[in-house]
Design a protein that fits this description.
By secondary structure, the protein is mostly beta strands. It has no helices and four strands. It has a two-stranded antiparallel ribbon with strand order 1-2. The chain has a two-stranded antiparallel ribbon with strand order 3-4. Strand 1 and strand 2 form a beta hairpin.
């Protein structure tokens, strides 16, 4: 299984459901699976920490 890499970051405001998603990595289209991890700060780490959710990417 390949090592996870950061493809995008997103921020959720303290009040709840307003999610802000910036631009995706140019390599995002090359991946068939995804994972979500909770990280400190607003910069993606070199490697994601513990993955909280994952799955397969569906066709666009």
């Amino acid at each position: 299984m390949p090592e996870p890499v950061a493809l995008a970051t997103f921020d959720v405001t303290a009040g709840g459901s307003d999610v802000r998603l910036p631009a995706w990595s140019l390599d995002a289209h090359r991946h068939d699976d995804f994972g979500i991890s909770l990280e400190e700060g607003r910069t993606a780490p070199a490697r994601p920490s513990a993955v909280l959710a994952s799955g397969q990417v569906g066709p666009a």
